């Protein structure tokens, strides 16, 4: 073999096997992706303080990302607005100024009529040690991002609000209380409240769940979705139900997809609805994605995007793909996408550039613990909120082809 | 077990040397001359610093040793230096150097000493060694290689880093348990008054508070960005310091049991990249007499920090670590710092492929009177590629660094300890 042939052969081998030799990860960092600094103690910038900023609720309305946070015990949460165009937080509001004694906004924001947003709270204990009262509240966002919050009161005394959905037709909020798991409805116009025990945890179930060191946060209905007029959620143990608002009836549909022996961990913690009439759910227990055919109510287990449990957020992008957050503590969350043709694509821990006053050159921010996810109205951006001591926003820009970047 | 630089003890042994034929003696002498590092004599405080002021000390009984990280510390109570030496995969030697006896000893490997099972493999001690008021030694362990970095939270990945305690009196290691699943512990500090340990995890940069006496471990959460700052340090009241992603000092104020964040970032050269800013501090040294902590940043600044019991305290920008000529001033990499009895700072510039001069390490002296630096020794990277260690000085004013040489041809790495005394010849 002459020298030229040898060189060609080496190039051939390198070309053939270089992918196999590359065993390490790269970061999916589309050019238009970015991070927004939301939390920073001791600053004159509009930022959230430490231990009060875990981003547990998110929605995008127009240019504004609206976030609701959870605080450590005894501290109070915030509502904030960040501009996608400005890539900055433009407004923060301490919920304690409007509704004292609250700890967390876990429900997500429901988009109501006239662009009002609705959410519910979990309360801190009262000063006498008794259980606090969760509140419903309405948020209206001004054109400049100003946040106006109106307290709608307590639907169930001594209970927090764990999940919530808005029915536009009936102008009614439906939710699940914490820790009892009572289903309730709240008529926004009449302020009438009605509660139902149909999906509440029973004493027998509590005894069983205690054997596995599981509390209400592990087994109550964490997320609701409305589809074809029905409201879907999960209930203990490992079941999916729907509520029919036409006749206030409850129906148990199916079991949540399970891993053998892990039924007690079953809990749907995220939902999304596709344009072709399927709803997709995420099981916290083992991280399975599943779909429900709304006509037949049949459920299909689509599998797990990564090895870890949890599936904390789901939302569709403008490319028709479903995006979600898989994994959580004690592991690391990954952004993933799913569609019927390609199946799952693991996009890893997102790592995007954060630019703000004082860090104009840009720094990289990596999202290890992502708490919630939503899409921009045009579906161009997938917006993720961190569940951290000092939580930030990570915004993934959907592109046709991603340039992957090797980590530093 | 002390050696001259690149000189085998067998060759140096006079009884062996003089028995050799003349041509061999000439050859050995010639080789020795060639092996002496390029040296510039420096007068500091009227003292001429020569090669006699420095020696490289090898680690015995660990032929596959690869490197040392921040894993060095001096125990004043027992007058001993401790070093963690690794094969950078799954074997970490725990070494003790006795300056009085000039003796370097492998105590054992930490998997044996700490009762670690194979699935609890540890690739490094990345932390410094810290000491309780009774001389008890504490350190933490680290995943530090591909299996941790990429397999992460998988059964084939890394289980997590441990706190370890060594009792020099009984010569016993006690495994104090893990901090967080899958997370390394990059550095440790101690409040000697309460023996509370501070630690920082990797890759999530969680600040950990651990009281070994009560087995009380608190995860105080994430403080930093993508590239985890590696260094914790304490002040004279036992408060602990770290940096956030803006390179602002973050103090854990132990009396108030809370964090205090500096309002402003530490000084940085104009144009310092974000990747340098988020990595924060690389080394520190304490001036106990004047209550000043000298800091080097990842952006190559030397800073004088004046801590105070409550609040953050003030900082002074002392300038860069070296004259970088037409290269960016923020470029030099300096993961080490010591302060001599003469009041000057000493550090070694270079490492991780980051040199002022290609493949060359520099031992530098920084005068705190004039805020100027000068080169003392220049080393080829196959003599000294990189050194770590913060604030390690024994009772005789000897300064210690954990060094590593790297073959230019094979990239093989070999660790050794550096003993340096700017005020006198280093005792053999």
Explain how this protein is built.
The complex is a heterodimer of chains A (408) and B (428). Chain A is mainly beta and 408 residues long. Chain A has one domain (32-406): Methylamine Dehydrogenase, Chain H. In chain A, 8% of the residues lie in helices and 45% in strands. Chain A has helices at 3-21, 203-211, 216-219, and strands at 26-28, 34-36, 54-61, 64-70, 78-83, 88-94, 102-104, 110-111, 117-120, 122-123, 136-141, 147-153, 160-167, 172-178, 183-187, 193-196, 225-227, 230-235, 239-244, 249-255, 268-273, 278-283, 289-293, 299-303, 311-316, 322-326, 334-339, 343-348, 351-356, 359-366, 370-375, 381-386, 393-397, 404-406. In chain A, strands 2-33-32-31 form a 4-stranded antiparallel beta sheet, with no helix packed on it. A 4-stranded antiparallel beta sheet of chain A has the order 3-4-5-6, with no helix packed on it. In chain A, strands 8-9-11-12 form a 4-stranded antiparallel beta sheet, with no helix packed on it. By secondary structure, chain B is mainly beta. The radius of gyration of chain B is 21 Å and the shape is globular. Chain B has 6 helices and 31 strands. Mean pLDDT of chain B is 90; it is low at 1-19 and 27-46. Chain A binds chain B through residues 23-25, 40-43, 50-51, 307-308, 327, 330-332, 351, 353-354, 358-359, 361-366, 368-369, 388-390, 407-408, and chain B through 146, 149-150, 152-154, 180-182, 203-204, 220-223, 225-227, 244-246, 248, 259-263, 265, 271-275, 277-278.
